[in-house]
Design brief:
The protein is mainly alpha-helical.
């Protein structure tokens, strides 16, 4: 079947190209995964740090922790994060309200501007 040099060379080139493409895909996947995880960790770290600052300010103002937690959760806007503050016994003190996702607009009239 592979008696000609041309057929063996074509098969070798195809196999080499296949291995290179698979290798590139794996490297790209690992890089994208790590980059996404790193950005997510940084976003969560920054959001938690900002909330801790608001909670400390509310605690200094109000004095008691449960009221400060409720005020901090109410005042601080989390965007797409849902936050629950627990006490030392892991009982919830305050929780941000659940935000329903915005409805997706699809179809031909979704791009039309009201006029």
């Amino acid at each position: 079947m592979l008696e000609s040099v041309r057929a063996r060379l074509a098969l070798w080139h195809a196999a080499t190209l296949g291995v290179l493409l698979i290798g590139f895909a794996l490297v790209a996947y690992v890089y994208t995964e790590r980059s996404t995880l790193h950005r997510t960790d940084e976003y969560l770290r920054a959001s938690a740090g900002a909330f801790v600052g608001v909670l400390r300010a509310e605690r200094e103002e109000m004095g008691e922790i449960p009221a400060a937690a409720r005020a901090a959760v109410k005042d601080f806007r989390f965007g797409d994060l849902h936050v629950t503050v627990f006490d030392a016994a892991l009982r919830p003190l305050a929780s941000s309200p659940a935000v329903a996702p915005a409805p997706r607009r699809t179809g031909p009239d979704s791009a039309a501007a009201p006029g």
